[in-house]
């Protein structure tokens, strides 16, 4: 089984995307389609006293205005609103009652014959509120934080802080060299290109087909069924293409509720597309305020780590991840303690955003390690090597594979790290200060249960079906590559069906787990097809495969062939003809092998060069080398694109990104992508991606996934480079030029 | 959104006539700002007069050796016009420092002068703003004011003018040609935009019904010693924290005449004759430039989040005048600061 896996393949859906043939949720039409426009709250907390919809209803072509007062029946219990990945607490219920829980909350939906009329009419709705005091500022809640809840089951335990080990306070007190620092990452919004959209098509008889931007069609299907008391067979959710998710589409968002409410109320198809400002009323990366202390002995190995974090969530739900799990995992230290507290804000519930927990907490850890290296007067990379651990430091177990050393070595060589002058402000280029920084990244290699159906035709075409999503990462393409190799057919003979709740079950696409899950799922189902063919082949007259076992045959070039003796082969078309069939279909569920005795992670080393104008503080990220260990790389092209995108994201996280809230109003004031800065082309210079070899036997294909690892550590590498360039340590992101101006 | 009447004007007189004295009538050319503001419900015109058919697309030398730029000349065409590149390179540079290629392709010269502030409160109808709704208060003074003004502010408004092109035109002593119900007039650039005072809703001194027909540049273009330096939070597609257009007329190392105008720090492109007087007859060096910067910034006042701009502006002035003196103008494509 080799051929396409591990090669550079352009996206099989690339032509569709660039020609517009790939349809997104807002592009599916239905006869009689109506358009919904959302009216959002302008206060952060309180009650709606009165909604005057008369002005909207007077606009010609307005069909209806849906509010909490006239919405269709919805469930009255929290359980019904809990999606597959909901955190603890009481999920937000759109248009449920008169309560306002955050600024920008949808409080009415105007439905009209055109989107323009809907939007015009929405602006004519007048709302009276009674306001209540609100808090949206983490720093005002520092005295009112709560600790994360104790886990009640193993699945919750993965999100609670690791247990303490040793005697960290004493170890810290007696450490030869100590570094303590407070680091801050602000709230960041996802800003995916595609706006969240739901097109809910009401079918005769009350069935619904919903085209929705989501990372989990079956999650949305179950959620809609729960909220509206519908049967699974009456709700089909499709999301064939997605213009970026990054975690914002893991949970069902409010647009799908509003579209379904309107479709059920009006018994006609309704589309709801969020505006860009409305996108800022969805989930977001929680701000993280963290205090980290590390103690080392004079030999440059760690004696103690303490890492305390505070993140933010809403009043109604308790969202958190194991923020300190990464600082606990990575470096050898006999003594360590971790804590995680939460600040409740009158905001939407925070959510997963690319490498949740790790991107923010490893940023702090890796800056702290850099500061410790300075205090120890040793090279930052050397410090990492001294503290390197071949065992998971939380559960003291080996890794299934960990090629981080190779990441360090190959990344450093490609970057030229050995030419670094350790003294801050010592390197210059044409008048600019030059800084070199590095950082480690770590993320999970997770596999989830998944079901894949494959139908192979006698002439060698395969249809591969699974309800997973391709959120833009290239899932279509890697699925086709694995199927082509597993079935021994050309790539162009494979068609992929995904993003449809009617297809075999898949978990939401997140956590970097889909590549490993679906690729091994395809291999399993392909093996079942092979076995099925073999059973038939054995019944053929004079079969050359009579005594060949199922593991000893392969599909190649349209034949079923013995792996031990290539002359023993039969054509698949003949096998099917003999069996009286023209296709074979199999559907199999693949679950990860239980392997709790080993840790499963991906790793990276990022090296960054910044150039800083000494007088004006303008920072340019001139060069980045990202070396990644993520098991077997299925497609070097789409994989490299994932890492390139991650590095660009990291540049934004380090230097630009921040959701700005005016706490007097509790309102996001840069709710658009002109004012919420992410990198533009001018901010991006040379980025080199290296994948190091990392054989891994955790799953048959050795795949780990890499949607998130590329981001972890990038902001720290850049922050450390800024320090090296300027001699100034900035511990709150983003590092805007006002924080380094005047270093001259 | 609001329903409005859309009409096309056939010539300048027709455009003026069609405003019909209605203060809520708006001209539309490129639409790169007006349409956004209408979507945000900030601008609620009763009538939108399409002036794109007016014959105002010429860039022509004037008899006195200057250049007359029609109000409908797109920003891109102006930036790449051979006469502008040759004689007024600081104007080309300033235009290229702004917005994106797509926006510059659409945006007109006259419309650029009439860009409205990017203050977040001005854009958000859910918040108080004196400029948008007089008398409601200024949310920025006690709010998120990192991008706001440090000079010429008032109790009513601390917003800044967002244009880059206007900063260069201010430095070049441009004039604005205007036609209105009572005839034509010529407005010096320095008198075109206003400080907020107690009427921040008025960005300019245009009277109701007046339309910009052209911007005229005098002969002096500082083509050999100039720069446009724009400092912002990312390397492209962001509004200025501080921007500066500078031009020097040198005799050896001695400054015969020096001019500089700043963007991003006030309600209008900011120029100060007293600061320029400091340069006259002095050696073109950092000490001279620093003295001039100190004069220009003598009344600068910071707010909670923008005090850094005072220091940044001082540094930008010194750096930009140095770039102009060395004849190494800032490139807008290569992002290293010259």
TrEMBL record, chain A:
Q: Quote the InterPro entries the UniProt record gives.
A: Ald_Oxase/Xan_DH_a/b, Ald_Oxase/Xan_DH_a/b_sf, Ald_Oxase/xanthine_DH-like, AldOxase/xan_DH_MoCoBD1, AldOxase/xan_DH_MoCoBD2, AldOxase/xan_DH_Mopterin-bd_sf
Q: Which SMART domains has this protein been placed in?
A: Ald_Xan_dh_C (SM01008)
Q: Which residues form the Aldehyde oxidase/xanthine dehydrogenase a/b hammerhead domain?
A: 19-133
Q: Which Pfam families match?
A: Ald_Xan_dh_C, MoCoBD_1, MoCoBD_2
Classification via SUPFAM superfamilies: CO dehydrogenase molybdoprotein N-domain-like, Molybdenum cofactor-binding domain
The Gene Ontology terms for molecular function here are: iron ion binding; oxidoreductase activity
Listed name of the protein: Xanthine dehydrogenase molybdenum binding subunit apoprotein
Source organism per entry reads Bradyrhizobium stylosanthis
Automatic annotation (TrEMBL), chain B:
Q: Pfam families in the record, alphabetically?
A: CO_deh_flav_C (PF03450), FAD_binding_5 (PF00941)
* Keywords on record: FAD, Flavoprotein
Residue span(s) of domain FAD-binding PCMH-type: 1-222
Q: Name one GO molecular function term.
A: oxidoreductase activity
Q: Give the matching InterPro entries.
A: CO_DH_flav_C, CO_DH_flav_C_dom_sf, Diverse_Substr_Oxidored, FAD-bd_PCMH, FAD-bd_PCMH-like_sf, FAD-bd_PCMH_sub1, FAD-bd_PCMH_sub2, Mopterin_DH_FAD-bd
This chain belongs to the protein called Xanthine dehydrogenase YagS FAD-binding subunit
Q: Origin organism of this chain?
A: Bradyrhizobium stylosanthis
